[in-house]
């Protein structure tokens, strides 16, 4: 974390505190407050992090600036239910910086908060090898930002993010999609993935029709590489191309300094979103076409179910 000089003028501090309590702080204000020490994308991350914390404070009717130690601790505990350790670390950095710059005591340094954080990091140690979750909120934010774009690459990437999330697709499944994998029915679009038929949202259906229209794809692979001249290739996208598309998602959201999405991220995020919506591990397993409940159980943090499933799978392999 860069050392940013704190405000010293009482009137300036008062005015700035009022601005940050209200929220929706402009990037220019963030840039001025941090004396231009951070990149545009870093400022976007700070802005998003602060809005997340403000939302929590408004919901619980507590002060965001200065924030009480208990409020920060409860914020950590609540966000830990849906966020990875890396995201929470970034939230804490932002909260700490805003308090220090406004000459307020830093609540994140209190032993109560540090104890909660240390406990959280230990509990989330198993997440280290797991892809960063790509949630519905991420997809909605990308739609809001890019849905009006006429660029071929924007339309394709938005379609990739949408199909991967709604269909919980593996990278290999995405690459293998043919031009006729999406089919329009009386009830909207469906996606054929092997022997499975997946219902798609109206939003996904609109994107499919738009992609087929602007790309001119009428045979071969549905999704393909695009060169710097906006020219469409003939071959399906490979794993490295898909990885770059998901790296772009984090960049578009201003989150590239906090985490990196991968082709596996939508399966992780969709599993967690479905679990939050009340679906069982078995139901998530069926929707994601897993042979075993072990992976969806791991994705949603059900370690007991994961271990039981892995033991059952190992016994089956030994018997075979």
From TrEMBL:
Regions of compositional bias (Basic and acidic residues) in chain numbering: 304-320
Pfam families: Phage_int_SAM_1 (PF02899), Phage_integrase (PF00589)
Keyword Acetylation among record annotations: no
Keyword Protein biosynthesis included in the entry's annotation: no
Domain Tyr recombinase as annotated: residue spans: 129-315
Region of interest (Disordered), ranges: 285-320
InterPro entries reported in the protein's UniProt record: CB, DNA_brk_join_enz, Integrase-like_cat_sf, Integrase_catalytic, Integrase_recombinase_N, Integrase_SAM-like_N, Phage_Integrase-like_Recomb
Signal peptide range in chain numbering: none
Domain Core-binding (CB): 21-103
Entry keyword set: DNA integration, DNA recombination, DNA-binding
Taxonomy, superkingdom: Bacteria
PANTHER family in alphabetical order: P CELL-TYPE AGGLUTINATION PROTEIN MAP4-LIKE-RELATED (PTHR34605:SF3), PHAGE_INTEGRASE DOMAIN-CONTAINING PROTEIN (PTHR34605)
Name of this chain's protein: Tyrosine-type recombinase/integrase
Organism per entry: Enterovibrio norvegicus
């Amino acid at each position: 974390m860069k050392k940013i000089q704190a405000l010293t003028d009482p009137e300036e501090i008062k005015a700035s505190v009022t601005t940050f309590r209200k929220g929706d702080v402009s990037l220019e204000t963030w840039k001025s407050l941090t004396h231009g020490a951070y990149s545009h994308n870093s400022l976007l991350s700070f802005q998003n992090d602060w809005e997340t914390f403000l939302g929590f404070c408004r919901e619980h009717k507590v002060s965001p600036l200065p924030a009480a130690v208990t409020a920060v601790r409860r914020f950590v505990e609540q966000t830990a239910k849906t966020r990875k350790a890396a995201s929470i670390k970034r939230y804490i950095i932002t909260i700490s910086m805003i308090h220090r710059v406004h000459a307020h005591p830093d609540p994140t340094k209190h032993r109560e908060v540090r104890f909660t954080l240390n406990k959280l990091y230990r509990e989330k140690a198993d997440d280290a090898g797991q892809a960063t979750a790509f949630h519905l909120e991420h997809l909605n934010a990308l739609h809001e930002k890019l849905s009006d774009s006429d660029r071929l690459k924007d339309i394709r990437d938005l379609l990739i993010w949408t199909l991967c999330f709604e269909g919980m697709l593996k990278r290999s499944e995405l690459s293998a999609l043919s031009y006729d994998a999406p089919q329009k029915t009386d009830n909207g679009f469906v996606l054929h993935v092997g022997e499975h038929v997946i219902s798609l949202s109206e939003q996904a259906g609109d994107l499919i029709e738009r992609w087929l229209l602007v790309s001119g794809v009428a045979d071969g692979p549905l999704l393909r590489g695009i060169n710097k001249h906006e020219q469409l290739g003939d071959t399906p996208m490979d794993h490295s191309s898909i990885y770059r598309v998901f790296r772009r998602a984090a960049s578009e959201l201003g989150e590239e300094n906090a985490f990196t999405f991968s082709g596996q991220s939508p399966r992780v995020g969709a599993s967690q979103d479905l679990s939050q919506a009340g679906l069982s591990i078995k139901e998530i397993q069926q929707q994601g076409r897993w042979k075993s409940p072990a992976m969806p159980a791991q994705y949603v943090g059900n370690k007991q179910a994961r271990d039981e499933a892995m033991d059952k799978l190992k016994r089956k392999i030994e018997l075979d």
